[in-house]
Amino acid sequence: MSGEQLQCEYYPFIVVGGGIAGVTCAETLSLLCPEEKILLISASPLIKAVSNLRQYGRTLQQFDVVEKPLSVLQLDCPNIHVLNTAVKEMDQEEHKLLTVDEKWYRYGKLCICTGGKPKVLMEGNKHVLGIRDTESVQEFQERLSSARRVVIVGNGGIATELVYHIKNCEVVWAIKDASITKTFVDAGAAEFFLSSLSSSAEMKDEGVSKRMKYTLEKPMISRLTPDLLGGALGPDWTEGREMQGQYGEGRSIHVEYKVEVSRLLSQEEMKSSGKQAKKFPKNDETGLSGEASWPIYVELTNGHIYGCDFVVSATGVIPNVYPFNKNKQFVISSDGGLSVNDHMMTCVQDVYAAGDVCSASWEPALHWLQVR
């Protein structure tokens, strides 16, 4: 064992992850164990927390999600020390964690709350963007500001919010379902909401939010390493964000139903394929031509091909188990999450997991399901 490892600081409890699960875990530990030191490791300078919690009966709760700077949590809970860094390596035998700034920390109990990361079509393609945290939203805004058309793939909450808020840009929305936003509403309600997506619908001011928010005085810092993500976006993530392209006015949306992405083609691949890209469907024939030159082309399973400036992949997330499972010591569920029992314990001694990074191993109740 190296001298650095021997000198590492000990914490009875270490929580990794600055999202709702991680912060709630750290705050609860602070309440139950006020004399114990707790370390919260967050890759983002902002953390997510629960506020205005209301209990309705035994199982029903209502609460708000707020963003807080790291310093606020430390003021509220003096026995919590918060580090803005990320875990690089885990030594389960020695109960130690190595952070990206090459410092070791020893734990008595560890809770992994690193959330999920976006499922991205063609990982590494510069024209495909996955949205999960504040920094990826800022990158999306920057790209959108010069875009004429985007293709959004996915039918969940983030995809729906993007489609609704994007202005002055053609949007092709590709979904695998027969109705929009199927995760949240039935087909009848979807038809009702579909009318509000038309370009003629007025984009109204939603009024003042009663939810407290914290922002950074400076722009969001770069990720500590390229593959690290901050906490998942909260419910008000679109508020105050400019989402405007450089073509047309208002909303211009076309939905492709019951499709998935068959493949992505570059300009050269599109030319050699001999296929024809579709024109954006519009009533007034003023849409951009399918013959226009686009950085990337999306071929759908129904055979339709659309050119666009970039693709937003919003098809859900996968559990972010890296780098904890480098040595394959954890039991991994079929959906990729760390398998936990009904006490949130993993198969590794003194290691727990909570939130999107884990998967329930017990038999679920009839109408219960885990949603990421």
UniProtKB/TrEMBL annotation:
InterPro entries on file: FAD-bd_OxRdtase, FAD/NAD-bd_sf, FAD/NAD-binding_dom
Entry superkingdom: Eukaryota
Domain called FAD/NAD(P)-binding: residue spans: 13-172, 279-362
Reported cofactor(s): FAD
GO molecular function: oxidoreductase activity
Coiled coil: none
Keywords (A to Z) from UniProt: FAD, Flavoprotein
One Pfam family of this chain: Pyr_redox_2
PANTHER family, per the entry: PYRIDINE NUCLEOTIDE-DISULFIDE OXIDOREDUCTASE DOMAIN-CONTAINING, PYRIDINE NUCLEOTIDE-DISULFIDE OXIDOREDUCTASE DOMAIN-CONTAINING PROTEIN 1
Protein's recorded name: Pyridine nucleotide-disulfide oxidoreductase domain-containing protein 1-like
